[in-house]
Design goal:
Blueprint (H helix, E strand, L loop, with lengths): L1 H5 L3 H9 L21 H11 L3 H10 L5 H19 L2 H19 L5 H20 L3 H21 L6 H13 L6 H6 L6 H12 L6 H14 L4 H14 L4 H13 L3 H12 L9 H12 L3 H14 L6 H14 L3 H12 L7 H12 L5 H12 L2 H9 L9 H17 L3 H15 L5 H16 L3 H13 L6 H14 L7
Helix pairs in contact: 2-5, 2-7, 2-12, 3-4, 3-5, 4-5, 5-6, 5-7, 6-7, 7-8, 8-9, 9-11, 11-12, 12-13, 12-14, 13-14, 14-15, 15-16, 16-17, 16-21, 17-18, 18-19, 18-20, 19-20, 21-22, 21-23, 22-23, 23-24, 24-25, 25-26, 25-27, 26-27
């Protein structure tokens, strides 16, 4: 269902889409200032929260009685929610959810005004993300639906109240990137979205003088990376923001994730090491998962295993656990330790859940019951990490007899395509992508769908919009592969952004 698409990256995606929301404004200017400005003390609270120092921020809020009550209420919910999103602690959520209910009830009893509508929408969105993050899918959908209704009302009745562009923009992107097969369900709930509209809202807020402009900038670049697959632009945008705030833990965290997606693993590892020295605030256990991935790409298998094991032992959620055990198994496999490889392979089968897409992919591989092709696996890791010369050597060493079946033949061609694309050999990439699509056929392998998606991106960049449209629509035709929800969402978003077809 729709919740699976929204949940595809666990707490990470939720954090991306929401945790940057924060607001505060002096009481005397709230009604007059449609941009909203921070008062000095709440500015400090806001800064602490964005640095993931929620304990300190919430302590200040307990003694603050002079600032605007709306904004104190919001920041309290913000700090609490970020803690739940990162920890995925069910018990902590149950405690703070009672506070959410009390705050929502209090706001609902107030006269309709833009500040109250906006805050209500934000609180319902926060609550929705909390539900989503902890597996309460239907509760999440209805909370987000309520947030959507409230933000629409605020936007319609108070069009000059610019902060609502953030709330409504995020919701528009979320709904607009839902795969086609869920559209009927969404329409029944009265929810329609547009990634383009959402981005336009965030861009307008980003270019304003609002205190929310920074948050809008981060959300804008995050969506560029997560939805539009413009990882280079997203990584650069977040890195540029770090120039002014080099020690902001949230910015560092987001930049690391975008760098990993943009094959900048060495740069990401450097920032992870920077965060190792800046550990004041909420523990960021997910970084160990990313460290494990990068070290696996670098063929530093023993260190990779240690990082994954540390992640497993400290991270409370079941998300990414299956994938972590699977990757420990692969690390042993690539060291030719088949006994330990098989032991962790079997452990991965019965550990964690398969909601996040890395876990889904791991589950699919585990079902097959055998290890991947070692050379192709190493080439994949090296390409993903940006270690291109290593990847080239590995692929060059592959002999026809190394490929055991049709899937491995298709993957070999696909790996050639990805390496050529990453190294800007576009003509070769196009040849390999076309062949990968052909070899995939109707098999439930993601190679064909992602090849079509990247062919669409190439055509779009070359301004061949009919060709781009053809390939983006082709993505939707591939069935039952591990990345169906996310690839379909990216294709739909790309289709929406293409220039309209010319009428004949």
């Amino acid at each position: 269902m729709v919740q699976i698409h929204l949940k595809k990256a666990g707490s990470f995606t939720c954090l991306f889409f929401w945790c940057l929301s924060a607001l505060a404004t002096p009481p005397e200017t709230a009604a007059k200032d449609n941009l909203w400005k921070f008062d000095p003390e709440l500015q400090k609270v806001h800064t602490l929260i964005l640095n993931l120092q929620t304990d300190q921020a919430l302590t200040i809020l307990t003694t603050n009685t002079k600032s605007n009550e709306f904004h104190r209420m919001y920041l309290q919910s913000l700090g609490e929610t970020i803690e739940v999103l990162i920890s995925e602690d069910q018990r902590k959520f149950e405690i703070i959810d009672e506070r959410f209910k009390q705050r929502i009830k209090k706001l609902e009893d107030l006269p309709k005004r833009p500040e109250a509508l906006f805050l209500l929408a934000e609180l319902h969105l926060q609550r929705g993300f909390n539900f989503l993050n902890l597996g309460k899918e239907m509760e999440a959908v209805f909370a987000i639906r309520k947030a959507n209704q409230l933000s629409q009302t605020c936007l319609k009745e108070f069009p000059d109240f610019i902060p609502v562009l953030k709330t409504h923009g995020v919701i528009q992107v979320m709904i607009g990137s839902v795969p086609d097969k869920y559209h009927f369900f969404m329409s029944l709930l009265g929810m329609r979205g547009s990634v383009t509209t959402g981005q336009q809202h965030l861009l307008k807020l980003r270019e304003s003088t609002s205190s929310l402009s920074m948050e809008a900038s981060v959300l804008y670049f995050t969506i560029k990376g997560l939805i539009n697959q413009q990882h280079g632009e997203a990584s650069k945008g977040l890195t540029d923001m770090l120039t002014d705030q080099p020690n902001n833990r949230l910015l560092l965290f987001l930049a690391i994730n975008m760098m990993v997606k943009n094959t900048q693993s060495e740069d990401a590892l450097r920032l992870i090491q920077q965060l190792d020295q800046n550990n004041h605030g909420i523990p960021m256990y997910y970084l160990e998962y990313l460290r494990g991935e990068i070290l696996l790409q670098k063929q530093e298998y023993k260190s990779s295993i240690l990082a994954f094991q540390k992640f497993i032992s400290t991270y409370k959620s079941q998300n990414f656990k299956k994938d972590s055990y699977f990757k420990i198994s692969l690390a042993y496999f690539l060291q030719n330790d088949l006994v330990e490889a098989r032991r962790f392979f079997e452990k991965a089968k019965v550990t964690g859940r398969d909601v996040a897409e890395p876990d889904k992919y791991a589950a699919r591989q585990l079902e097959e019951g055998f290890f991947p092709n070692a050379k192709l696996l190493k080439a994949r890791f090296a390409t993903d990490g940006g270690y291109f010369s290593q990847a080239y050597s590995l692929l060059k060493s592959v002999e026809p007899t190394d490929l055991r079946n049709g899937k491995e033949i298709a993957e070999y061609i696909y790996r050639q395509a990805r390496l050529a694309h990453k190294t800007n050999d576009i003509q070769s990439a196009k040849l390999y992508y076309r062949e990968a699509i052909k070899l995939t056929g109707q098999n439930p392998w993601y190679f064909g769908a992602n090849s079509a998606l990247n062919m669409g991106y190439i055509a779009r960049d070359q301004k061949d919009y009919p060709e781009a449209r053809r390939y983006f629509e082709m993505v939707l035709s591939f069935k039952k592969h591990e990345y169906k929800n996310s690839l379909d969402g990216k294709a739909r978003s790309a289709l929406e952004e293409l220039p309209a077809k010319k009428s004949s």
